[in-house]
Amino acid sequence: MSTKNLDQLYRSVIMDHYKNPRNKGVLKENNVTVDMNNPTCGDVIHLTLQVEDGIVKDAKFEGEGCSISMASASMMTQIIKNKDIDSAVKYAHLFSDMMLGKEIDDSVDLGDIEALSGVAKFPARIKCATLGWKAMEKGIGTDSDN
């Protein structure tokens, strides 16, 4: 597939998640709630997680922001659901590496989040893309700021 076609496919995936977000809302039975914002651009996320026995049983988000931040949060909730905490954190680290333009393990299926790989070319947008992921890490107590 040509680079132009791949870029178009990735834009389509991002816009689909932005216009039709997965896991949008608030979990009634949650045990983790995190509110974060990106003061640089005004993106805001409210993340609720249901974590039981070390497994992220469910994840939902609400928020306002650009297409990158909201699509990334949608993709993040999809990929961490029913994963153990270590796996969720592994995906967060892989995503962070991808945002920094680092090589990532090709054997890991990133699903739709691979569509955000182009964000690495735009440093001002990286905080938008990582907002939901940082909220998840903070919520499960693994962020480096704790």
TrEMBL record:
Pfam family membership, one: NifU_N
Gene3D superfamilies: 3.90.1010.10
Alphabetical list of NCBIfam families matching this protein: SUF_scaf_2
SUPFAM superfamilies the UniProt entry points to: SufE/NifU (SSF82649)
Name listed for the protein in its UniProt record: SUF system NifU family Fe-S cluster assembly protein
PANTHER family in the record: IRON-SULFUR CLUSTER ASSEMBLY ENZYME NIFU HOMOLOG (PTHR10093)
Ranges of residues in domain NIF system FeS cluster assembly NifU N-terminal: 10-128
